[in-house]
Each structure stands twice: as C-alpha cells, then as structure tokens.
Hints:
The structure holds two protein chains of two kinds. Chain A is mainly α. Chain A has a domain at 32-83. Chain A has two helices and no strands. The model of chain A is unreliable at 14-19 (pLDDT under 50). By secondary structure, chain B is mainly α. Chain B has ten helices and two strands. Chain B has a two-stranded antiparallel ribbon with strand order 1-2. In chain B, helix 3 runs antiparallel to helix 5, helix 3 packs parallel to helix 6 and helix 9 (200-206) packs across helix 10 (233-252). The longest helix of chain B has 53 residues, at 33-85. Chain B is elongated and about 160 Å long. The chains are: A mainly alpha, B mainly alpha. At the A-B interface, helix 1 and helix 2 of A face helix 1, helix 2 and helix 6 of B.
Amino acid sequence: MKKTLIVAGAVVMLVASGCSSKPNAEELQQLESLKAEVASLEREISTKESEKSALNRSIADKSAQLNQCEQDTKVVQERLKGM
Amino acid sequence: MENQIMNVVRRMSLVALAALVMVTGVLAQEMTKDEWQKQMNEWTAKRDELRSKLNTLQAEVDQLKKTDAEKVAAIKKCNDNLLALVGATPESERAFAAMLDQIDSKVNELSRLSNQDLWARKGEIDDVQKMIDEARNNKLSLLPKYYDRLKEQQNRVDALRRSLESAGMQTYTVGTWARDRDCLWNIAKKPAVYDNAFMWPKIWQGNKDQISNPDIIKPGQKLKIPPKGELTQDEKAAARSYWQRKQAAGSAQ
C-alpha cells in the first residue's frame, strides 16, 4: 500500500512537470535583448542627464555674464553723463 | 534466493524512482512560459518608460542648447554695445588692456625696489603716473573692470610716493656760508646728513629741479636729502662730469 502511494505520487509529479510548457530558445533570446535594450537606455539617460546639468550650469554662468554686462552698461552711461 | 533477488530489484527501483522525482523537481524550477510572458511584460513596460523619459530629456537638452546659444548672442551684443558706448573697438580695447598690463608690470618692479633704489629711479614713478593719466583720459577707463584696476594702480603709485617720502627723506635748509659754511660737500659731511662728504652728488641729483650748478646753493633753500646708500650710476656720472668740467675750466685759466 505504502509503496503504491509513493509510486503514484511520483507519477503525478512527473506528469505535472512534463505538461507545463517552457519558453523556447528564441523567446529567451527575445527577453535577453529586451533587458540589454533597457540597460542601454539607462546609460543613454544618464549621459543626457549629465549633458542637461552641464547646459544648465553654462546657461547660469552666461546669465550672470549678461547681467554683469547690463549693469556695466548702466554704470558707463552714468559716468559718461558725469563727464 | 529468488525472493532476495526480487527484494534487491524492488529497492533499486525505488531508489531510481526517487532520483527521477528529484531531477523532475529541479527541472520544474526553470522558467515556465507564463513566467517568461510576465517578465516580457515587465521589461517591455520598463523599456517603454525609459524611451519616453529619454525623449523628454532629449527635448529638454535641445531647448537648453537653444537657450545657451541665445545667451551667447546676447552677451556678444551687450559687449559690442558697451564698447560702442565708449567709442572703442575690440582692437583698441586689447591695446588699452596691454597698456594697463604694462603699468602693472612697472608698478610691480618699482614696488620690489629698496627705498634707496626707488629714490634713484624716482623719475620712473612719474613716468608711470603719466601712463595712468593717459589711460584715465581714454573712455575705456570708464568700464568698471578697467576703472577699478586703474584706481588700484593709482593707489599703488601713491603708496610708492609715500614710501619714498617716509624713507628718511629729510630736508635741509641751507644756511649762510659765513655762519654755516654750507656747500653740498659740507652738507653731505654733516653727521646728521651722510657723514660722508663724497656723497654730495646724491644731494645734487636729488635736487636737480633747483640746483643746476652744484657750486651754487642759496641760503634758505630747502634741499631734499635722499636716503643714505652708495652713489648710483647716475650720481657717479654726474660727479665725473662735474670734475671734468672743473678740470677743463682750471686748464683754461
């Protein structure tokens, strides 16, 4: 009886595992390509974010230069009036 | 005997069955189609999200590049207008900046001199002052960056003059010959002056503005007494020239 139960259980497991379908090699490759594309996109985003930060710094610097030039212009106009 | 063989076969069968069950269990841990599909869905969603983020970032970067270029153009326009305001061109501004560099260089050189050497080259302080005055007459000096720089240069020249004055620059009021026996030789010999009669050319050269002939000084004249030190090349040359003239005059008589 005991042996019969063990054999039956084993047969059920074998049948159950054999019946569930698995992805084929092409499908697994598809998943790997997708993961690689995501990694590449993450790198590109990181590069773009660095570029964006550099541009923001450059614009802030140029805004300060422009502001300084406008102030200088006002000062020179005042000094010219005083001449 | 037969029973024993049967028992061994049964046991072996059970062991084989157990091994088969274990292998099946391990194989069952591999990805199933459903799990693959689930992962595909997750990674696809992530990829789409990243693509969208990258597109947004690209648009932002393009806009920032445009803004940056606009700022460059605005700065150039502002600088051009500023130069036009003072009637200058980029070339004349460069020449002006070079002149200020030259003033800096000269002031630095003079600032490193000892008071004695500074006294000997005091004419160069006047030259620098002329350059500063000339720069001030240029409208470019109204630009804050040059205005402040010239102000600083003027302060340094003023400091040079002060250090020249405070470096033991005494004055001596010439007495009468009858009472004081004052001539450049005797004045230089006084302990309170140089305590060395041979230093008389120093007093002469330090007072060229009021002594043309070193044999003639007048009572009441206020002479500047340059700081003590060796005679400079100019002072030695002046003394030589004086003695040569004296010798020539003596020979003529």
